[in-house]
Every structure is written in structure tokens, then in C-alpha cells.
Design brief:
Elements (H helix, E strand, L loop, with lengths): L3 H4 L33 H14 L3 E8 L2 E12 L4 E2 L6 E2 L4 H14 L19 E2 L9 H6 L8 E5 L9 H8 L1 E2 L11 H15 L3 H10 L7 E3 L23 E3 L2 H4 L1 E3 L1 H11 L13 H9 L15 E5 L2 E10 L2 E8 L4 E7 L7 H11 L3 H5 L21 E9 L2 E9 L5 E5 L2 E5 L12 E3 L2 E7 L12 E10 L2 E10 L4 E11 L3
Parallel strand pairs: 5-7
Antiparallel strand pairs: 1-2, 1-14, 2-3, 4-10, 6-9, 6-23, 8-10, 11-12, 12-13, 13-14, 15-16, 15-23, 16-17, 17-18, 18-20, 19-20, 20-21, 21-22, 22-23
Helix pairs in contact: 2-11, 3-6, 3-7
């Protein structure tokens, strides 16, 4: 699932990229003479098409079969200004592939008996507490933070170098955004902030900073020498430069959800991670988790919630008759993906230092090349056509005048909502009349609609908290019907991909 902010961006590219072959070396097990073998043309040609189509600065990919690298190649430049080519050792921003790394680190503490997945997350947070606006905060367990079923809404908060404000202490971030907008276990909602709270739990339990813990307990033992969590801008030349849709360099950024987004790693280090999670570690890797713990990570689900969804850091689903374990990440200047097909010993890894690329296209090309029968099975399949948005016709229980408030860390804001039988919607926020706006094609799920008991609508307007005042934003409401109440959250979504701030909202039916 992509972040709401990512789904509301329109990406484009305008620069031509040169091709640069990767170097075949390092500590992974390689076939003899592999560097001289001709790489699979299906994968290479698909990457070249994407490089040209999206004007990508660079692209790095590797395919492993039965623990051996059968294809590895890097294209373009990690740093276009200084003509630094991408290599298999180039460190890329991983975005949400940070999540399975954080989960791996946390599970080492679980094995040591220092963290109990079934205990409330609040038991590990000191004075900073998750607050339940619906349900019971004691049911927001550590496990549910990992599964994204705790009730926390989606959240993004970028702190770019050279800009203000700076990242607040996690205790303050939790005070502002540690809110449950659905009951724990009620729904799956992708939550960066949940993984930010997990990295805070790691710090409090281990006595180490999150970057130091990951270095000493995960990256080091797994031989991931080109991996790190940076909390300060890395030295020049240390990592691939992130590029925006205009192909201008983006500044380094920090987060209040480091455990969801802040890791960097090279192509070969991600291969090491994938081999470890596949339970086929390299000889020089320490077994930091028992096999049964890895199974627990990949098998744990939330009863009653449909798949696919996040397990303990990873997503596991059935794809064309094969069990597929995968993780992906995306944010401005970064795209990453790991796909593992255990029954075939197949691993595909892709990295780019731009966001406007669908890495799944490369993974599918690798499936066609290396997965027996896949090409024949999928050759006649066509992508599902997107359906035209239907006119919003509200159910009878929604047609009413509603009034209530949005609760922010700086105080409550009065809200009035009128829903007419013909589908017209009128919203007033703090006495200001705001306009519901249509979303672009492909983003119909964010348009005005009523789906699975949740009323969704985007609004041209703003919330005047100090956080949301950092930049231009729109509002997106997600309100669930609960008898004569509508409640959930209204989020401030940055137009420049700097933040997505959720605020609890509750409205009552007038006269209800």
C-alpha cells in the first residue's frame, strides 16, 4: 500500500540517462565466470525501457537463484552532477523497506524476552502514551503496531535539512499523533507512525539509539556493511543522491518515524537480508533470529482482516500459485523493492534514486525469465481496467446535518457537515465553508464516496496547527459510521510531500 501523499503526486521526468554496468564482486556466492555471461535480456530491456520512459537517474537490480547471483547490473548515476556511477555497493534510501529491518531488530529483543508482542505498546513508552479515541489503548499491542492494525492512522512527517522546524522528541510526537482512530484489531491501516513508535520502543528497551542498535544488532551480524540509519546528513558521496520529479537533487531528510523510513542499504546488503529471511543465510552471517521466529514474522496475521496486509514487517501473499514474500518502499527520490519466491529459491531486488517508477514491472520481468511457467501463465492476462468513478449517492443513514469537532494537539476546531440525498456535500471548518474536490484518475478511492462503512472525501482547505502551517496542504476525511456518529480522522496532506498529519474527528447527527 502506498502512502496517501505518494498517491496524490503527479510524477514526470525529462532527462536522458546513460547506462553504466555494475561491478561483480563482494562476499555473495557467485557463479564462476558470471561477469562474462550475458545478462537476461528480458530484465535488462525492461529496465532500459523504464530508464528512458521515466528519465531515471539510476537503477540497480539483482536476481538470486538458490543463493547465487544470476544477474546483477546497475544503470545510470548515483550522483548525476558529479558523474558518479551506480554500483552494487551504492547505498540507496530504502523508504518503507526500513520496516522489515526494524521488525527484524525488534524480534531480537522478543527472543531475549525483553519485549512481549502481546503486551500494550504503552507499557514500553514511559510517560508518552498512545491515546484511544475509540476502543481501548491497552489493546494496541506491540504486535498490532507491527501488523498496522493498532488503530493508528497513516502519518508522514519529513524534516528536510536546512529547513525548520527540526524533529521533535518522540515523546512529543506521540503526544501529538499517537491517536487511535479505529479500535485495535478493527481495521488494517498502513501506519508509518506505528513503526516510529517501534523504533522508540527499541531505544527504550535496549538502551541504545535506534541507529546504533540497528548497526550492532542487525547490520553488523548480517554482514550488511553498506547499511545505516542516518540521523544527520551523510558525508558527500556516501549515498545515492535522491532526485525529485524535476531531476533536481533533494536534500537529506529526517522523520519522526525513523523505524518506518530512515534506513539506507546497498543492493548486495539487501540480498543478504533476503537470504537471511529466506532461512538460507551466508556462511559469514550470524543467525540473529531462530528459524521459528522468522516463521512467526511471516505467518502472524490479524484474525478477521482480509489479506494482503503487512505481517511482522513483510507482506506475504499468493501470486500465480507461488507464495510471494515482499517489501517495497517509495518516497521522493527513492524507490525500493524485494521479492522472494521461497519454493523456487528466487530473490529479486530493485533500487532507484527517484520515485516515479513501478519496480513491480522489473520484478514481473524477472519472474518471466526465471520462474518456470510464469510467462505462459501470464502472457494473455491484461491489466484490470480502471472503472469510472460513480456518482456518490449516500445511504439514508448519512443524509443529515452533522456537527462536531476536530481534535488537534493545539485545541478543538468546530466542524459542520451537511450531506444531501443527491450526494452534494457541504463542509464548514471553524466557520469557513470549504469545497470538496475531485481527485485525478487512478485515485478514485480518495474521491467522495462511501466504502466499507467509511465516508471519504478530499477538501480544498487547511488546518491551522503549527505543524500543518509548514506548507500548502489539502484535507482528506475518513469518517466511519457508528450509529448516530461519524468519527475517524481528517488529515492535512502536504502538496509538497512534507507531511500527512491525522487529527481525530467526531460528528453527531443533529437531532439524533
Amino acid at each position: 500500500m502506498k502512502d496517501l501523499l505518494a498517491r496524490t503526486q503527479v510524477w514526470r521526468g525529462h532527462l536522458a540517462i546513460l547506462l553504466c554496468l555494475g561491478f561483480i564482486s563482494g562476499s555473495l556466492v557467485f557463479e564462476a565466470g558470471l561477469a562474462q555471461q550475458k545478462p537476461d535480456e528480458q530484465v535488462r530491456s525492461r529496465i532500459q525501457e523504464l530508464m528512458k520512459e521515466k528519465a531515471l537517474p539510476s537503477f540497480a537490480t539483482a536476481v538470486l537463484k538458490d543463493g547465487k547471483v544470476v544477474y546483477e547490473e546497475c544503470f545510470g548515476f548515483a550522483d548525476m552532477e558529479n558523474r558518479v556511477p551506480a554500483t552494487p555497493e551504492t547505498m540507496y534510501a530504502l523508504a518503507s523497506i526500513t520496516k522489515p529491518l526494524t521488525a527484524t531488530g525488534l524480534m531480537t529483543l522478543v527472543e531475549q524476552g525483553l519485549v512481549d508482542l502481546d503486551r500494550p505498546a504503552n507499557d514500553y513508552l514511559g510517560e508518552a502514551k498512545i491515546v484511544a479515541h475509540v476502543g481501548d489503548a491497552s489493546q494496541a499491542t506491540v504486535k498490532r503496531l507491527l501488523l498496522c492494525t493498532s488503530g493508528l492512522p497513516d502519518h508522514v512527517n519529513f524534516f528536510y535539512a536546512g529547513e525548520s522546524p527540526q524533529r521533535p522528541p518522540m515523546s512529543e510526537a506521540i503526544r501529538r499523533y499517537g491517536i487511535l482512530v479505529t479500535a485495535p484489531g478493527e481495521a488494517y491501516t498502513y501506519s508509518n507512525f506505528g513503526y516510529g513508535i517501534l523504533d522508540y520502543i527499541i531505544e527504550r528497551v535496549s538502551g541504545k539509539t535506534y541507529p546504533d542498535f540497528m548497526k550492532k544488532e542487525v547490520f553488523g551480524p548480517l554482514g550488511m556493511k553498506r547499511s545505516a540509519v542516518f540521523v544527520q546528513p551523510p558525508p558527500a558521496g556516501e549515498v545515492a543522491v535522491k532526485y525529485g520529479d524535476d531531476r533536481k537533487p533533494l536534500p537529506w531528510c529526517d522523520f519522526d518515524h525513523r523505524g518506518a523510513s530512515a534506513a539506507y542499504a546497498s543492493l548486495r546488503d539487501l540480498a543478504r537480508l533476503a537470504l537471511f529471511i529466506s532461512k538460507h543465510p551466508l556462511l559469514d552471517q550470524k543467525r540473529i533470529l531462530q528459524d521459528r521466529t522468522i516463521d512467526r514474522m511471516l505467518q502472524t496475521t490479524e484474525p478477521g482482516i482480509k489479506e494482503p496486509l503487512l505481517r511482522l514487517g513483510w507482506t506475504v501473499l499468493d501470486h500465480e500459485g507461488h507464495r510471494l514474500i515482499h517489501a517495497s518502499g517509495g518516497m521522493p527520490g527513492a524507490a525500493s523493492r524485494i521479492g522472494i519466491v521461497p519454493d523456487q529459491g528466487l530473490i529479486i531486488i530493485s533500487l532507484a534514486n527517484a520515485y516515479n517508477v513501478v519496480l513491480w514491472e522489473v520484478e514481473k520481468a524477472a519472474f518471466r525469465a526465471y520462474l518456470p511457467g510464469y510467462a505462459e501463465k501470464t502472457k494473455d492476462k491484461k491489466p484490470e481496467a480502471s472503472q469510472a468513478p460513480q456518482k456518490f449517492i449516500p445511504p439514508a443513514e448519512l443524509v443529515a446535518q452533522w456537527s462536531g469537532s476536530i481534535k488537534t494537539y493545539e485545541g478543538d476546531i468546530p466542524v459542520q457537515l451537511a450531506i444531501a440525498a443527491d450526494g452534494n456535500l457541504t463542509l464548514k471548518l471553524d466557520g469557513r465553508s470549504l469545497m470538496v474536490i475531485p481527485m485525478p484518475a487512478g485515485l478514485e478511492d480518495l474521491n467522495l464516496g462511501f466504502r466499507s462503512g467509511v465516508l471519504t472525501f478530499p477538501v480544498l482547505g487547511n488546518i491551522r496547527t503549527s505543524d500543518a502551517s509548514r506548507g500548502r496542504h489539502i484535507l482528506v476525511a475518513f469518517l466511519r459510521v457508528r450509529g448516530n456518529k461519524l468519527n475517524g480522522h481528517i488529515s492535512a496532506a502536504s502538496m509538497e510531500y512534507k507531511f500527512l498529519f491525522p487529527y481525530w474527528a467526531e460528528l453527531s447527527k443533529n437531532g439524533g
